[in-house]
């Protein structure tokens, strides 16, 4: 039998693990990659928030029309801009009798009764713009006066527009084609 002789290797050839320089290099590369990914993730989050608010607004407009169809009284939707944010309120009763307070809670007077309100705080960085601060959905018909468009937009330029026809029907589009799931206006 032949004896097999194992040679002992030097500790440098046999070492396992990472050196401090290799570890620091990996950490630096990871930090650079992460710093590039964070803004993209934030924009994606803003776009998702915009999409959610656009869908909520569309459903609320449809709800206002539905409430008017079932009611003997008109249903109103008022938009209110404040420094802390924007809101809209769906309510029944006399027109132009509801607004939002500084915290976004609906405040109605003159016999008006809030059905639903939505607060968009300015920290969310999503703006709401419309030329019509007041919409009225007629009882039993659901027609809206006046026809209007409502824009929701982010600071990055992504936007969704809700268009309400005189018949009270709502459609969504993207004015600058920035939101791929919506047709271009």
Automatic annotation (TrEMBL):
<dbReference type="GO" id="GO:0015627">
    <property type="term" value="C:type II protein secretion system complex"/>
</dbReference>
<dbReference type="GO" id="GO:0015628">
    <property type="term" value="P:protein secretion by the type II secretion system"/>
</dbReference>
<keyword id="KW-0488">Methylation</keyword>
<dbReference type="InterPro" id="IPR045584">
    <property type="entry name" value="Pilin-like"/>
</dbReference>
<keyword id="KW-0812">Transmembrane</keyword>
<keyword id="KW-0997">Cell inner membrane</keyword>
<keyword id="KW-0472">Membrane</keyword>
<feature type="domain" description="General secretion pathway GspH">
    <location>
        <begin position="54"/>
        <end position="166"/>
    </location>
</feature>
<dbReference type="GO" id="GO:0005886">
    <property type="term" value="C:plasma membrane"/>
</dbReference>
<keyword id="KW-1003">Cell membrane</keyword>
<dbReference type="InterPro" id="IPR022346">
    <property type="entry name" value="T2SS_GspH"/>
</dbReference>
<keyword id="KW-1133">Transmembrane helix</keyword>
<dbReference type="Pfam" id="PF12019">
    <property type="entry name" value="GspH"/>
</dbReference>
<protein>
    <recommendedName>
        <fullName>Type II secretion system protein H</fullName>
    </recommendedName>
</protein>
<comment type="similarity">
    <text>Belongs to the GSP H family.</text>
</comment>
